Amino acid sequence: MIGLDTNILLRWLLDDSGVEDNAPEQAKLVARVILESGDTFFVNHIVLAETIWVLRNKAGQSRKVIEEIVSRLIASANVEMESGETVRRALDAFVGGKADFADYLIAEVNAAAGCSTTLTFDRKAAQHPSFSRLGK
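Structure for Pil-like protein, as requested:
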C-alpha cells in the first residue's frame, strides 16, 4: 500500500495542469501511476480533510459534488480510506449541515473513540447533535 499526500490526490481529482506553478505533466503522471500501477493507495483523514477544503474553498465545488467525489474514492478498488465508515458518516453530516467537513470528521472520530460529545465554540458545528457548544 502507498500513502497519498494531498497534492497528489488533488492532481488526480482535478486537472490543474494549467496552473503556473505545476509542471504540465503532473496530472497525467499521477493518473497513470494510480490507475496503472496495480498498487493500493491509502488516504488518511488529514489528506481527505485538506482535499475537501481545497475542493470547497479554492475549486468552488458544491457539497453535493464533493459527496460524489468522496463516494467514488471510498468505492474505488485501489483506494483504501482511513476508517471508511467514519468518513461516510462525516460526509453525510457535511452534505446535510453547515459546518466544514473537518468539523464533522472530528466529531465522528471522537465518537468512534467513545466520546459522548465534542466541545466546540463553532456555531455552525454546534447545530449538529455530535457537538456541544461551550459558552453562548
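The longest helix spans residues 45-57.
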